[in-house]
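Module 6 notes. Inverse folding takes a fixed backbone as the condition and produces residue identities as the prediction. Think of it as a translation problem where the source language is geometry and the target language is the twenty amino acids. Below is one complete input and output pair. Work through it position by position during the lab.
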């Protein structure tokens, strides 16, 4: 919402990977950044870290990529502001997000084609 300045809904979650457990008493911190902005959607990368407050040790516990769609005042997808890439890290994350988007769209087309065949009695 901070980037789009409107309501957003979760469209998908890609690759929710768990790396280490989080224990009772740990401080859990979620770090998020925008990797890609489309016409009406944004991809956010999220990294979860757990800190053992007694030892000061920080563990990378989980990562995920979430896609959100911005909704206008009538609840329909609306255009979102562009993304300014300033650092090499931002450019790398954006490039990798473009690859993930291409895979998501390819998978969506394949699923749609499969559903079309299933509705017409073809395997």
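Target side of the pair, the amino acids:
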């Amino acid at each position: 919402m901070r980037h789009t300045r409107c309501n957003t809904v979760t469209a998908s979650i890609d690759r929710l990977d768990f790396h280490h457990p989080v224990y009772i008493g740990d401080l859990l911190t979620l770090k998020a950044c925008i990797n890609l902005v489309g016409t009406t959607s944004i991809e956010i990368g999220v990294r979860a870290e757990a800190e053992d407050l007694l030892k000061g040790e920080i563990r990378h516990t989980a990562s995920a990529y979430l896609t959100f769609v911005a909704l206008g005042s009538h609840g329909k997808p609306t255009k979102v502001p562009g993304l300014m890439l300033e650092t090499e890290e931002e450019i790398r994350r954006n490039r990798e997000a473009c690859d993930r988007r291409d895979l998501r769209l390819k998978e969506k087309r394949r699923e749609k084609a499969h559903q079309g065949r299933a509705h017409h009695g073809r395997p």
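Reference fact for the lab report: Helices lie at 88-119.
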